[in-house]
């Protein structure tokens, strides 16, 4: 895929939490515009050249924007459609590409389509959503579960049928078997692509296609109710990943292909539990093999779920890289709005090591806002919980508020995010993890990201090099090389808490980046401090 070949990566912005421009405690699009020079262009800028905006559409905010009631506008909380146009223009002036969320599986129950659909059984939009009669005893049509807890079916008292919602009951599933639904969703895509957006991130695509017979899901024999999310009680064999999934996705990629230099990225988490779907790697590869890989690619989320060891990350990267065909572009995603923060999951030094790994792997790396300054999960007191997931399935640690807290711009009140109490709390002590603090510190996390992104911009080998696992790996070290016809680089990562000596090939003698300190090769060896990583070029 050459469409974004020169992009060094993209940066996920959760608009509610990025920058509040009007003092109401909620981030907004003008706030994003204010900070475009931080993203790319101004002094002390991060230096990344594409952004992805989580939903900003009109919504009752039951799931904070992933429940859309109008695909063609901006929620007043975030600004106006003109604000978005201005954001797009200002971003493009700085050569920043803009990708937006495309929530395809479901709408809000307040969307005009659903209001019409539930008004009567014979309404012309009845079949735009998934309606079914209950069983003879009045119970739901089958045993499918909602990701957010409980049954995936809700009874509509007026029409006497159940509607399907794979997520909240306020997020009814669209019926993708209906051609008119698919046409309407392509029209939504075209509206934003015609406006000039550069990419679409398609949400929760695995759920677009279901079993046409609506069979019960089988139980998951490995489920442990004391440990697992209740959704894992079943093998989700029939409630998602149906036979028509890739046919539907190809309709979307066909549209995107009509637009020059645009892409679509699919969100999909492989299913570990149902073995008939194949290994995780196989499931990722299906999104390359069965869709138009010239314009589309899936996120790879596995870096968020690895055990902390060189072996674990080595096997993950080498297996995935080794299975990619020419033209398949990986998108490594080590953090996002649904998962605990990188520094919280692994530790601050470890997060720096993974920054080096992510930003030296070929493809399109995805950085979650705040990870570049080492932000950590923020404790959310019971009275401050906002996330519906935590409210519906309490006590399982599934709530996503801790990783969605406001961006920490400075040590001022509310971390410089807002002059008003934010919608989610900020930490009492940032521990130096603010943009203002780190822009002044040459050894900060931000400085590391800035350097790596600049190297990635300058050197094609870091974006498109051929990956090869290095010989001489030790149990504590994961090392690999990247090569093009004109250049070569080596990455060495110490995953252990001990100092490790690593022998460097004669041709790779110049350390151009270190996660911790200045380093030189001495007598063909580098001494790696605990959790230290190095990027080396030829002498």
Walk me through this protein's architecture.
The chain has 539 residues and is of the alpha/beta class. It contains 14 helices and 18 strands. It folds into three domains: 374 residues, TIM Barrel (Alpha-Beta Barrel), CATH 3.20.20; 53 residues, Oligo-1,6-glucosidase, domain 2; 73 residues, Golgi alpha-mannosidase II (Immunoglobulin-like, Sandwich), CATH 2.60.40. The strands form four sheets. Strands 10-9-8-7-3-2-1-11 form an eight-stranded parallel beta sheet, covered by helices on one side. The chain has a five-stranded antiparallel beta sheet with strand order 12-13-14-18-16. The longest helix is centred in the middle third of the chain and has 17 residues. The two termini are 31 Å apart.
Give the helix/strand layout.
Elements: E1 10-13, H1 29-34, H2 36-39, E2 50-53, H3 81-93, E3 97-103, H4 112-117, E4 131-132, E5 153-156, E6 161-164, H5 179-195, E7 199-203, H6 245-257, E8 263-266, H7 280-289, E9 296-300, H8 310-323, E10 331-332, H9 342-346, H10 348-358, E11 366-368, H11 388-392, H12 435-438, H13 445-458, H14 461-464, E12 466-469, E13 477-483, E14 488-494, E15 500-503, E16 508-514, E17 525-528, E18 533-538
Parallel strand pairs: 1-2, 1-11, 2-3, 3-7, 7-8, 8-9, 9-10
Antiparallel strand pairs: 4-6, 5-6, 12-13, 13-14, 14-18, 15-17, 16-18
Helix pairs in contact: 5-6
């Amino acid at each position: 895929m050459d469409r974004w070949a020169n992009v060094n990566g993209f940066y996920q912005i959760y608009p509610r939490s990025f920058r509040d421009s009007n003092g109401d405690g909620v981030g907004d699009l003008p706030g994003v515009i204010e900070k475009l020079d931080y993203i790319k262009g101004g002094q002390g800028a991060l230096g990344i050249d594409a952004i992805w905006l989580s939903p900003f559409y009109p919504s009752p905010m039951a799931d904070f924007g992933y429940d859309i009631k109008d695909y063609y506008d901006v929620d007043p909380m975030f600004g106006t459609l003109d604000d978005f146009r201005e954001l797009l223009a200002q971003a493009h002036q700085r050569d920043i590409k803009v990708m937006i969320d495309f929530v395809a599986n479901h709408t809000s129950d307040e969307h005009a389509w659903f209001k019409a659909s539930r008004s009567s059984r014979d309404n012309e939009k009845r079949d735009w959503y998934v309606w079914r009669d209950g069983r003879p005893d009045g119970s739901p049509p089958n045993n499918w579960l909602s990701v957010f807890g409980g049954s995936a079916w809700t009874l509509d008292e007026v029409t006497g049928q159940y509607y399907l919602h794979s997520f909240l009951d306020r997020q009814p599933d669209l019926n993708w078997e209906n051609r008119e639904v698919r046409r309407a969703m392509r029209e939504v895509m075209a509206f934003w692509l015609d406006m000039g957006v550069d990419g679409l991130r398609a949400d929760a695509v695995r759920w677009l296609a279901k079993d046409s017979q609506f069979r019960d899901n089988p139980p998951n024999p490995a489920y442990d109710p004391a440990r697992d999310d209740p959704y894992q009680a079943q093998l989700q064999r029939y409630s998602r990943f149906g036979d028509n999934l890739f046919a539907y996705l190809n309709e979307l990629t066909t549209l995107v292909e009509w637009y020059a230099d645009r892409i679509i990225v699919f969100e999909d988490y492989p299913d570990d539990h149902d073995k008939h779907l194949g290994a995780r790697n196989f499931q990722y590869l299906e999104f390359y093999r069965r869709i138009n890989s010239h314009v589309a690619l899936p996120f790879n989320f596995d870096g968020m779920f690895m055990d902390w060891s060189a072996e674990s990350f080595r096997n993950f990267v080498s297996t995935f890289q080794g299975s990619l065909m020419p033209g398949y572009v990986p998108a490594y995603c080590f953090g996002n709005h649904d998962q605990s923060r990188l520094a919280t999951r692994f530790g601050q030094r470890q997060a720096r090591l993974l920054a080096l790994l992510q930003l030296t792997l070929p493809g399109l790396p995805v950085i979650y806002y705040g990870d570049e300054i080492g932000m950590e999960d923020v404790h959310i007191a019971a009275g401050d919980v906002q996330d519906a997931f935590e409210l519906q399935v309490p006590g399982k640690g599934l709530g996503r508020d801790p990783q969605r807290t406001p961006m920490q711009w400075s040590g001022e009140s509310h971390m410089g995010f807002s002059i008003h109490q934010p919608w989610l709390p900020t930490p009492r002590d940032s521990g130096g993890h603010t943009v203002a603090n780190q822009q002044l510190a040459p050894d900060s996390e931000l400085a590391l990201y800035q350097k790596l992104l600049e190297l990635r911009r300058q050197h094609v080998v870091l974006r498109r090099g051929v990956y090869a696992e290095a010989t001489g790996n030790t149990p504590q070290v994961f090392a690999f090389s990247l090569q093009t016809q004109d250049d070569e680089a080596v990455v060495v990562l110490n995953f252990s808490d001990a100092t490790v000596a690593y022998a460097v090939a004669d041709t790779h003698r110049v350390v151009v980046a270190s996660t911790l300190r200045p380093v030189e090769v001495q007598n063909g060896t580098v001494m790696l401090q605990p959790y230290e990583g190095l990027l080396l070029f030829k002498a």
